[in-house]
Design brief:
- α1 runs parallel beside α7 and α6 packs antiparallel against α7.
- The chain has about 240 residues and is of the alpha+beta class.
- It has a 6-stranded mixed sheet with strand order 2-1-6-5-4-3, sandwiched between helices.
- It is globular.
- It has 7 helices and 6 strands.
Length: about 240
């Protein structure tokens, strides 16, 4: 189930801040659950599951934000890729010579309980072809300028739904470089703009122009978010 405000990015950001020694496990999980509500991995609370993974050799969490035709952050197997594509997000847990994929879905019980449930899948090795933060920032800037120029003739992507900007959280966690915070914040604002895009009142030609521009920008936004969330492990 695709969510407007994915929970995988905060889990990766705060999980990596914990793994790199910048925050404690309790703080990391508390920050994630402020956004998600109670979080379970299978039948285990998120806090206990992460602690057990750490004992098993968990070294980092990686972010996947796939879209049709662009399995960004995924490296198989096919069943996991398909499930992650349907969800639009995934967390890849790196444990030595193996990896696990965590896929979130809403956990709703009765009229008052609202949380998130992560399903665990076998995953392929971390992708080695993902852009560095510097590369992703350059691509994002170039795509943003190109999209702005293309959209100028057909109306900007915020037409009709300005309130939806509040639903995207691009904050990283302590320990990330300033550049990563900057790139993540910009990409998150652009992600909100993409969610708000509205084709009403446009001609077929204008819709086609808008679609190409927004697809290109969407790809750059997702690559920037993934790179920013991995930047805590990049050499300074």
């Amino acid at each position: 189930m695709r969510a407007e405000s994915p929970i995988s990015p905060p889990l990766v950001a705060w999980g990596n801040a914990w793994l790199s020694g910048h925050v404690g496990l309790d703080e990391a999980v508390d920050q994630v659950e402020k956004l998600s509500g109670p979080a379970l991995v299978g039948s285990l609370p998120l806090r206990r599951y992460l602690a057990e993974l750490r004992v098993d050799g968990l070294s980092e969490l990686r972010l996947a934000l796939p879209a049709p035709g662009d399995p960004l952050g995924l490296s198989g197997p096919p069943a996991f890729n398909a499930a992650a594509l349907e969800a639009g997000e995934a967390v890849i847990a790196v444990l030595g010579d193996r990896t696990l994929g965590l896929l979130p879905s809403p956990d709703l019980r009765g009229s008052s309980y609202s949380g998130v449930l992560f399903a665990v899948h076998e995953s392929g090795p971390p992708r080695a072809d993902l852009p560095s933060l510097a590369e992703a920032e350059r691509e994002l800037t170039t795509s943003m300028l190109a999209a702005t120029e293309a959209l100028a003739e057909v109306g900007g992507p915020l037409q009709g739904h300005p309130g939806r900007l509040e639903r995207v959280n691009g904050a990283l966690a302590p320990g990330y470089p300033a550049r990563a915070h900057r790139v993540s914040a910009l990409a998150s604002r652009l992600s909100a703009a993409l969610l708000a895009a509205d084709d009403r009142g446009l001609t077929a030609s204008q819709i086609a122009t808008r679609s190409v521009a927004l697809r290109t920008l969407d790809s750059a936004v997702r690559r920037a978010l993934v790179s920013a969330h991995h930047a805590i492990f990049e050499p300074r």
